Protein 1
Amino acid sequence: GENVEQHPSTLSVQEGDSAVIKCTYSDSASNYFPWYKQELGKGPQLIIDIRSNVGEKKDQRIAVTLNKTAKHFSLHITETQPEDSAVYFCAAPNFGNEKLTFGTGTRLTIIP
Amino acid sequence: GAGVSQSPSNKVTEKGKDVELRCDPISGHTALYWYRQSLGQGLEFLIYFQGNSAPDKSGLPSDRFSAERTGGSVSTLTIQRTQQEDSAVYLCASSLEWANYGYTFGSGTRLTVV
């Protein structure tokens, strides 16, 4: 089945700086790569996703890049703000697109 | 409804009791998923429904765990003879059809076994 690895497990950045979280996946047939943000006491919320026919996607301060050859994808958050503090999960679908396998999560802390 | 609804939001139960957790997915979403999240940990897959069928039950930790879905809508996760290690947040998600449509998660049920 699909195996997703995520790094780093914790990340602290100064407010206004950029944050980058990286994930690798094992199944070369995977074609969809979402990122979820989980705030304390809430369920994960989809913040951005990318499909395998593009290399980059942006939505205001967040962007995701995909390298299919290397089988890795990354989340980039620019001009970080205190409300960006949360746990972020990457994911990739298994063969057949039946379910998502999640990375182990990154706890991002924005230092005011 | 507008989102995925889970109930109860919190449940405290005594060891050995049975519990039922409910998930009401987004209307029209055919795929429904249950995940478990232990304190500070990642998302552990439990079971997946497509319509009323469960093609993948591979994540259920033991035969004390079962789930069903009726009418292609509401799902119930049942844990029999609860143990302390069952304490976790149980998250439900639904998707329009397949995983690559993206999940919408509920807020979860926090289960505490005392």
Note: The interface with chain B takes residues 31-32, 34, 36, 41-46, 49, 51, 89, 93-94, 97-105 of chain A (CB under 8 Å).
Protein 2
Amino acid sequence: LAKTTQPISMDSYEGQEVNITCSHNNIATNDYITWYQQFPSQGPRFIIQGYKTKVTNEVASLFIPADRKSSTLSLPRVSLSDTAVYYCLVAPGVNFNKFYFGSGTKLNVKP
Amino acid sequence: DGGITQSPKYLFRKEGQNVTLSCEQNLNHDAMYWYRQDPGQGLRLIYYSQIVNDFQKGDIAEGYSVSREKKESFPLTVTSAQKNPTAFYLCASNRGTVLAKNIQYFGAGTRLSVL
């Protein structure tokens, strides 16, 4: 099971781009990288998932280098409503159930 | 609307009492999960179930029990053996197929406190 390491917290200002990096040195060949967002007193929600290179959706971009030992979640032009905890998970795409969420990164967006 | 419904939103337990947290999903997902979250911490896996009538212990199963009699339902019982039950409990599900890539969908959570 590949464990992940993320910064405990980050501060940003509205309108800035935020990059949150996750280290996963023991990632396996069949592992995918998935990011979730959690607001206080709510369940986490899926943001983005990738296997290699770059993935972009309407919310974020995910950059994965060739060695896949780290990944970077990029949030363009953050707003106050992006203040949340962001979790990076590494797990196989199928037939796996023991997900490790860790403590995540607390992003605080200031006005 | 498709999704996962957890109830109640808030629950209070007396000493020595068992309480049951409800989790229902209408997403037709095979796999369901229960997590516990303590303040400022990440999620820890309590139990999970890949199919009906089958479930497995997670990392912190002691003091908890589950059942999976229907695909849509995965209730969690917090027994009197769980000495520190105060936490935020989250239920999740995923489709468990290649296309789903193990993306989990979460309910809104139940906050359990001890009286």
Note: The first strand of chain B starts at residue 4 and ends at 7.
